[in-house]
Amino acid sequence: MAAGDSLRIGQHCRYTMRESHWQRCSYTMQEHNRMEKAYKLEFGRGRDSELFVTCCGCSQTEPLHSFGPAMKPHYLIHFVLSGKGIFRAGGKEYPLEGGYGFLIEPGQLSFYQADETEPWTYIWVGFWGSRAEEYIKSMGISAQHPVFHSESSDELYGIVRDMMDHNTIGMQNELRRNGQLHIFLSVVAQSAPLVERDEADRANQYVRRAVEFIQRNYCNPIRVTDVADYVCINRSYLYTLFEKSIGMSPQQFLSTYRLTKAAEMLMIPDLPVESIALSCGYQDPLTFTKAFRLMKGVAPSVYRRQVQQDENRVNREHLRQVEDFIEKVGRLDAGGEP
Fold first, then answer.
1. Long-range own/partner contacts, residues 18-26 (CB < 8 A, 24 or more apart)
2. Mean pLDDT taken over the chain
3. How far apart are CA 102 and CA 147, in angstroms?
4. What is the structure's pLDDT at 190?
5. Nearest to 262 by CA among 310, 294, 309
6. Which pLDDT tens digit goes with each residue over 223-274?
7. How far is 86 from 4, CA to CA, in rounded Å?
8. Distance CA 154, CA 317 (A)
9. Of 114, 197, 303, 308, which has the most beta carbons under 10 Å away?
10. Contact 122/82 with Cβ under 8 angstroms?
């Protein structure tokens, strides 16, 4: 019995865990028979979520206990708390011991087995989401590099324990578990191997992160230096990467993104221009008006009247501009050139 086929926790087992405060399983589980001692929880999938927990658990295995070869429908990270075992995937075998972990990707055929004399105890977390692949790739672990080492065994165990302590239905527990998932991955990322990337891939990675930062923070009075600090490169190098990748400077991209959002907001009749300026990161309405006129050729108030008088034509023009802008940025996600 392992992460894929271990004991499903019922009401009685959850009560037992709470009574014992879910003390560290590698020390408190007593072997009364020849079965693996495993605690596992499964959770429903999030709706259109970027990243969410699908299952988690802890297992104290018997000698030579194994799972697979089999595949999983989600990402799954195991971390060994104590003991030894082997992990096989992609035609390779990895001998592992306490302090090491391994990744299983969705649809990847894998096999793992406990040692005969020192069977391992491990925790695991399964997860999925629209950005799961992106996060895993950025962390440096993959099907080609599935093994990592961490000195933070206690912290990782505590995170999984907290997930399992908040195992019932309800938004508060779902947010708690998914928040802990982000912390779990951050701890793993601290010691995950760095995968060498070619220069073009690294450059696109910087630009993608910068674009994402702008998309999430355009409403704040951020500057290009803030963007550069976020992706940990200097401003001049960021300028070079933006010019090469999307044909405009970081400042031009930031302004274009803000003003594109402002044009969308101007289609809301009762929304004051001053509020739109603040909502798009402009502290001074006059500065906003000047920038908008430079981009659109007319002041925000005039643009709004044009929308009201010839809504279909202006909407089509605005939609085309937005689509062109999104297409240019979208090429980065596809790894292509503009």
1. 18/165, 22/161, 22/164, 22/165, 24/81, 24/157, 25/58, 25/59, 25/60, 25/121, 26/60, 26/81, 26/82, 26/83, 26/121
2. 79
3. 4
4. 85
5. 294
6. 999 999 988 889 999 999 999 888 899 999 999 999 999 999 998 888 999 9
7. 16
8. 57
9. 114
10. no
User: Of 32, 56, 31, which Cα lies nearest the Cα of 43?
Assistant: 56
CA 24 to each of CA 17, 66, 157, 209, 297: distance values in angstroms, whole numbers, following the listed order: 11, 22, 8, 38, 66
131 token code pair:
């950005």
Which amino acid is it at 278?
L
Q: Backbone phi, then psi, for 128, in 5-degree steps?
A: -155, 175
219-233: per-residue pLDDT in tens? 999 999 999 998 888
| Alpha carbons 112 and 2: distance in angstroms, whole number | 9
Q: List, in sequence order, the alpha helices (H) in 218-271.
A: 224-231, 235-246, 250-265
User: 328, 247 in Cβ contact below 8 A?
Assistant: yes
pLDDT band at 193 (very low <50, low <70, confident <90, very high): low
Q: 180, 22 in Cβ contact below 8 A?
A: no
- Among the residue ranges 3-17, 147-161, 204-218, 276-290, the one predicted with the least confidence is 3-17
- Sign of the four-CA dihedral 307, 313, 316, 318: negative
In this prediction, residue 31 carries a pLDDT of 33
Q: What is the DSSP letter of 32?
A: S
What is the 8-class DSSP label of residue 85? E
Give the DSSP letter of residue 283.
Answer: S
Give the pair of three-digit tokens for residue 61. Answer: 């295995």
Q: Which of 2-16, 67-81, 312-326 has the highest mean pLDDT?
A: 67-81
